[in-house]
Write a structure and sequence with these properties.
- With 272 residues, this protein is α+β, with helices and mostly antiparallel strands.
- It contains six helices and 15 strands.
- Strands 8, 9, 10, 11, 12, 13, 14 and 15 form an eight-stranded antiparallel sheet that branches. The chain has a seven-stranded mixed sheet with strand order 2-1-3-5-4-6-7, sandwiched between helices.
- Helix 1 runs parallel beside helix 4.
């Protein structure tokens, strides 16, 4: 059974290693795969994009643990989500928002059973600040051993969803989105996808489409090398999102951009 890990823990501290230790202690046959531990600290929105972009490439039945949890120890709920034969374990803070929107069959469980979480011992101290180790890792490990999702708690219908999945239509011929993730190359990923482009009555390969970020109009290219190393451009990336890039450079620095900044898709020639 595959268990993936996505966190904002980094690799400097013991956090990731201890989670893996808990998983392997419960199920030594588990195959643990790191998706990323370099999520921007506390950025639930960035983690949501990463798991959305990763899960389709894993076999069905994979268990995805996502721990970007700025409200750990508070009243926010730990949850287990079963969606189209895959499983997601993490905090109920909106990190699975894209999963909710992309799956047809879904069940959400509020993790309340103490039977499947870490027990305190002379060697292991527990506390309210590390649910990745004490709750999410053991739940994922027991799930990988065949424990039914219903054993972990009560089914819920009111999980938290972030207002990030859909851009909105503005004035005629304008689609208003935003930056939801910035990768290590300084590329800005927006929540405008290839499917949204049709709202403007045009295909993504047509030159009439323009991207507007930070007051600049950016041309839409097909691939990175088609861009310009002196100015930002845009393309449809490998996950189907409009991405702002600068060939052999960093669009983030050039545009002084941050997550949440507006991204507009318009037809060429429309004044902004």
């Amino acid at each position: 059974m595959i268990i993936t890990l996505t966190t904002d823990f980094g690799y400097r501290d013991y956090f990731v290693g201890s989670m893996k230790g808990i998983i392997l202690g419960i199920n030594p046959q588990a195959q643990v795969v790191d998706i990323s531990h370099e999520v921007e600290p506390y950025s639930v929105e960035s983690a949501a994009y990463l798991i959305k972009s990763s899960y389709p490439y894993f076999p069905q039945g994979t268990i995805h643990v996502v721990v970007v949890d700025p409200e750990v120890g508070s009243t926010r709920r730990p949850i287990l989500v079963e969606a189209d034969n895959n499983f997601y374990v993490g905090p109920d803070n909106g990190v699975f928002s894209y999963i909710y929107g992309e799956t047809k069959k879904i069940r959400m469980i509020h993790i309340t059973s103490e039977e499947y979480v870490l027990k305190p011992s002379r060697q292991m101290m527990l506390g309210p600040t590390f649910h990745g180790r004490d709750v999410f890792a053991p739940v994922a490990a027991w799930l990988s051993k065949g424990i039914s999702p219903v054993k972990f708690g009560q089914e819920i219908q009111d999980s938290i969803r972030l207002p990030l999945a859909e851009p909105r239509s503005g004035e005629e011929g304008v689609l208003e989105g935003k930056v939801i993730y910035i990768d290590r190359f300084g590329n800005l990923i927006s929540n405008i996808t290839q499917s949204h482009v049709s709202l403007l009555g045009s295909s993504p390969g047509e030159v009439e489409l323009q991207i507007h970020v930070g007051g600049q109009r950016l041309p839409l290219k097909r691939y990175y090398a088609e861009g310009n190393c002196k100015e930002p451009c845009a393309l449809i990336n490998s996950c189907g999102h409009i991405e702002i890039f600068m060939y052999l450079g960093k669009a983030q620095q050039q545009l002084q951009a941050s997550v949440g900044d507006p991204v507009l898709l318009t037809r060429s020639g429309k004044k902004r």
